[in-house]
Amino acid sequence: MKTSLDCIPCLLRQTLEAARLITSDSSTHERLLREALHWAERMDLNQSPPAMAQRIHRRLREMTGVNDPYRETKEWQNRVVMEMLPALQAEVMASGDPLLTATRLAIAGNAIDMGSNGQLTEQDVRQAVQKAQMDPFSGDVERFRGAVSQAETILYLADNAGEIAIDRLLVDQLLPRRIIVVVRGFHVLNDATRVDAERVGLDPVVEVIDNGSDAPGTILSDGSQELRERFSAADLIIAKGQGNYESLSDEPGNIFFLFKVKCRVIADRVGQPMGTQMLLHA
Fold first, then answer.
1. Domain Damage-control phosphatase ARMT1-like metal-binding spans what residues (predicted)?
2. At residue 179, what are phi and psi to the nearest 5 degrees?
């Protein structure tokens, strides 16, 4: 997916929110924002939005010396969702359609995104998950169900911390197929890394690898050789979040994108209103 002109103000907002999260030094805020404005002037709009965000967050880490600016944020997000997990597991098991229920809860967890909402609170997280079954939904459930039943190997591209805990519900429904969960290779935004997968207990259940990249999406050319090999070999790819949709929507493969529509650019592209839970086949 190419970068829309409407993506640029969002990237600039994200830049300032991230800078303010790390430091109260207004001169650092100004320096980073000016650099982002300069990059925006020259950026290749044929690249996906995560490619621009990757550059911004690299520079932010360089300027501040803070390797994981969102560490504390990710910790409370993982904690909050792990507290909710037993009740959510019970909801899935009591459902007449556990796969669909787990899928919708996993999509609801995509609201835990500091890229789209830098002011996200614990209450926001709880509300997003609790009203999962009330959100508008768009997707071919039977096609997804058929793809899952036919797959032997599933590559599950995770997105954010907190959200990755809810992903366990869907992973449970995909077992006993071979599942490889992919997390980010380096810290960026509140995206999940190996540490988050360990903290929510995914690593004893499935194989977890990182993608070798610090982009808030999955840019195959920027990822590891292992990622590209696993991507090509998988029978089914489940890609969580708008960042993965933005970076992979033009890639070939049997890909289902699971995300909440969180901006007008994506809403126009998929033809659904803001807040819709998307189960979209590539």
1. 4-277
2. -120, 130
Domain at 16, CATH number: 1.10.8
Question: Taking a C-beta distance cutoff of 8 angstroms, is the pair 154, 178 a contact?
Answer: yes
Residue with tokens 């599933």: 154
Q: What is the pLDDT of residue 74?
A: 92
Report residue 244 CA to chain centroid gap.
Answer: 6
Asked if residue 155 belongs to a domain, the reply is yes
Instruction: Indicate the angle between helix axes 7-22 and 49-64, nearest 10 degrees.
Output: 20
Whether residues 104 and 176 share a domain: the answer is: yes
Residues 92 and 220 occupy one common structural domain = yes
Question: Per-residue pLDDT tens for 166-217?
Answer: 999 999 999 999 999 999 999 999 999 999 999 999 999 999 999 999 999 9
Residues of the domain holding 45 = 7-64
Question: Could you give the number of structural domains in the chain?
Answer: 2
Q: Same domain for 47 and 159?
A: no
Q: What is the DSSP string of 44-56?
A: -TTS-HHHHHHHH
Q: What is the pTM of this model?
A: 0.94
Phi–psi pair at 86, nearest 5 degrees: -55, -40
End position of a domain, from candidates 37, 64, 91: 64
Give residue 94's Cα distance to chain centre.
Answer: 27
Which residues have C-beta within 8 Å of that of residue 210, sequence separation ≥ 6?
A: 182, 183, 184, 185, 193, 194, 224
Q: What is the pLDDT of residues 132-149, one digit of tens each?
A: 888 999 999 999 999 999
